[in-house]
Amino acid sequence: MSSLPTGWRTGIATNYGGAQDGDSPYSPSYGTSIGSCGYGLLDKSQWPYWSVGALSSSNMFYSEGPINGCGQCFEVQCVNSGGQYAGRCNGNGGESVTIMVSDSCPECEADHLDLQALTYNQLGPMALGRMDIKYRRVNCKPPVNLMVDVDSSSGEGGWIRMTVKNAAGRASIKGVALKGSGSSSWTDLTNDWVFVQTGARWETGQQPTGSPFDMQVTQDDGQVEGTGTFQTSMQFKIVGNDDSADIVSNDGAPSHSSSSSSSSGPSSAPAPSSSPSSSGGCSSCPDTPPSSSYTCAQQKSFGQCSQSWMSGYCKQTCGKCSC
């Protein structure tokens, strides 16, 4: 286990999801809905409470860390004097927020952070668009345990894709492996960034046989955590001391209401109001979503109905029923 890099870096911050993008800052957009890290639709009421941002693809933390910095946390402070955007802080400077990386910004310069508009607004008026900042990497401190969201699966021996969320400490996941029940060998999942929105997703085309699976999650400093269930009771240790503030709700005080491992996690969509099993009046054509994270209506809105792995799911919603 190792401590985080020390020291501040200087740069600028912009914001997304506000009026300049033609959006409401209270509606999901970009890094809170379709960010390149693949966390999906983030729930504003759960950690990290939309306190998120995007790293430049030229940023050292993007290029040197696993999965391009996804899930890492940074403290960002507004700098009120000495830069090209002087006087744009809410106060006299030093206002601070902690963010989690949920997206990338290919068009940004190396030390340019793009923040969700409400988070930016805690530092300075979002309408001004740009501010001088300094930032440093800090430990992530989610109030919940690691969560694994299975995005898609075609069954034993076939394809499986999943996302690891809510990592604490360094929050730099470099490896995920599965082992079938009764097996002694591990299957390593890959993270190749072949498709957009896959940054924190791990996958294999040959998932183990024999469920339930055992799982190992490895951090870039060698910490390994393992569990026999997908709802975990584990979390990475925070190493070293830092005086950074925790990520807080954009509504004000920190929220720790979701403290058990049964929490749906920060990037889960709102839970469906009814069971994900068959619904409607066609019992021979079930309307079952591939996971509990998104309803069939949401999968359809994401354009997933045409995907081959959806062939056995959401048949009514996707119009695949003959009854």
Automatic annotation (TrEMBL):
| Pfam families in the record | DPBB_1, Expansin_C
Residues annotated as region Disordered? Answer: 243-294
Tell me how this protein sits in the membrane.
Peripheral membrane protein
**Swiss-Prot/TrEMBL GO biological process terms:** plant-type cell wall organization
- Outline the extent of the ShKT domain: 285-321
Cellular compartment(s): Membrane; Secreted, Cell wall
- Looking at the UniProt record for this protein, which Gene Ontology cellular component terms does it annotate, in alphabetical order? membrane
Location, primary (coarse class): membrane
Q: Where is the composition biased (Low complexity)?
A: 253-293
Keywords per UniProt: Cell wall, Membrane, Secreted
Q: Which residues form the Expansin-like CBD domain?
A: 158-265
Answer whether the UniProt record assigns the keyword Membrane to this protein: yes
Supply the InterPro entries for this chain.
Expansin, Expansin/allergen_DPBB_dom, Expansin_CBD, Expansin_CBD_sf, RlpA-like_DPBB, RlpA-like_sf, ShKT_dom
Q: Where is the Expansin-like EG45 domain?
A: 34-145
Q: Which PANTHER family match?
A: EXPANSIN-A15
Q: Report the family membership.
A: Belongs to the expansin family. Expansin A subfamily.
Instruction: Specify the protein name.
Output: Expansin-like EG45 domain-containing protein
UniProt organism field: Apatococcus fuscideae
